[in-house]
Amino acid sequence: MPELPESNSAKTKSVDKLQQALGYTEPIFNASMAGAAGGALTAAVSAAGGFGMLGIGGGTTKDWIDTEAGIAASSGRPWGAGLMAWVLDKNLKPLEQVLAHGPSFVCISFGEPGPAAALVHESGALVGMQVGNAAELSRALEDDIDVVICRGNEGGGHGRNEVSTLPLLQLALSKTEKPVVAAGGLATAAGVAAVMGAGASAAWIGTRFAATTESLSHPGIKEAIGGAGIDDTVYTRAFDIAQRIDWPVEFGGRALRNDFSDSWAQDLEALGDAVRSDDVLTNSINQARARADLSVAPVYAGQSAGLSSAGLSAAEVIADLAGFRAVLQQAARRWGSA
Ligand SMILES: Cc1cc2nc3c(=O)[nH]c(=O)nc-3n(C[C@H](O)[C@H](O)[C@H](O)COP(=O)(O)O)c2cc1C
Predict the structure, then answer these.
(1) Which of 32, 65, 120, 214 could be disulfide-bonded to 97 (CB atoms 3.0-4.6 Å)?
(2) How many CB atoms lie within 10 A of CB 33?
(3) Does 51 have pLDDT greater than 90?
(4) Is the predicted pLDDT of residue 231 greater than 90, yes or no?
(5) Residue 156 Cα to ligand 1 middle (Å)
(6) What is the pLDDT of the chain when averaged over all its residues?
(7) Could you confirm whether the keyword Flavoprotein appears in this record (predicted)?
(8) Residue to mutate, 84, 147, 158, ligand 1, most ligand atoms under 8 Å from C-beta
(9) Which atom, in ligand 1's list, is nearest to the CA of 221?
């Protein structure tokens, strides 16, 4: 099971301590995305030298976890899983179930990781936490978190809409010797180079991997991500309110704008009233999800949708992102000595 070396080798030596502990060759994690990052994506990312993360959502069954974690582990390479703290507050079972499959790393985000983090440590795995503002960063610097994932508000899916990736990353790197991973808005070799050059131990990437061939997302969702521009997203709680999902109010979601968000994102109070008064809106969004009507159903994606295309495999995406080294070398040649 992984153990972080004592010294902060990320800053002082040629080997990064998180890379040493988790054994990836490419500093690329696919984000643990419920509904997209199943076993196939997790295994494909780890097999390609990155670090694959299984996304475990709120309503996940034991059967699903057993099947998908089994596939995730089938690459024979280290892998991890991500779960939501506010879901684990009510029930630690999904965490216990995934730990039985031997992940090396577990990310617990969106709420207080406390008892869940202790359980992960008992299993011998490392614990990570996504942070979206300075207060959450301070929380993640406490002893029970090993890896800080700075998740900026340009990122896709749920999170805070407070601070962007680079300010959060710079703050974290100035405050801690723990490994720091950057998330939100990263989709190209240049983006990965930016955060690795700043001192991150890895890049955590959601939207671009959601559109890969191994992602569990509906083909229409992958096409929609591939066809979107960088300014086609909206940050809103409208989809959760309509579906009556109890995400804590501080965590909305970034999704592609559609007819539904255009109608309701600016008037959440009226939406809440409508959802409380009858089931019409809830039924219509649930039906839209079932038939992949993306004018109503949410397509969770970040601003990097504008830098992502559908139809590539996870290995092709990792090979492309591995070009971050050439970007850094070019910058060093241009700016390396005065
Ligand atoms: C489709 C989708 C689903 C997501 N689901 C989860 C999730 O279940 N748990 C989680 O911790 N983060 C989830 N996220 C957020 C990611 O972990 C990550 O913060 C984000 O994707 C990073 O930004 P990017 O999309 O610009 O790469 C999701 C993101 C997307 C795009």
Answers:
(1) 65
(2) 26
(3) yes
(4) yes
(5) 5
(6) 96
(7) yes
(8) 158
(9) 1
Q: How is the chain split among helix, strand and coil, in percent rounded to 5?
A: 45, 15, 40
Whether ligand 1 lies within 6 angstroms of the CB of 152 is answered as no
- Ligand 1 center from residue 277 Cα (angstroms): 31
Angle 168-156-322 from CA coordinates, rounded to 5°: 75
Output Rg (C-alpha) for the chain, integer angstroms.
Answer: 19
Backbone φ and ψ for 48, nearest 5 degrees, come out as -85, 5
The amino acid present at 42, given as its one-letter code, is T
Only one residue has tokens 């559609």, namely: 258
Residue-range domain boundaries for the chain: 15-217+312-335, 219-303
- pLDDT value, residue 5: 75
| Averaged pLDDT, 170-194 | 98
> What is the band of 7 on the pLDDT scale with cuts at 50, 70, 90?
low
d(CA 74, CA 65): 14
Span 15-217+312-335: which CATH code? 3.20.20.70
Ligand 1 atom at shortest distance from the alpha carbon of 254: 31
**Six-digit token pair at 268?**
């959440």
Record the tokens describing residue 226, joined without a space. 């591939």
Residue 130 CA to residue 183 CA, distance in Å, equals: 8
Q: How far apart, in whole angstroms, are the C-alpha atoms of residue 120 and residue 124?
A: 7
Whole-number Å distance, alpha carbon 38 to ligand 1 midpoint, is: 13
Task: Kindly report the number of other CB atoms within 10 A of residue 225's CB atom.
Answer: 28
pLDDT at 138: 98
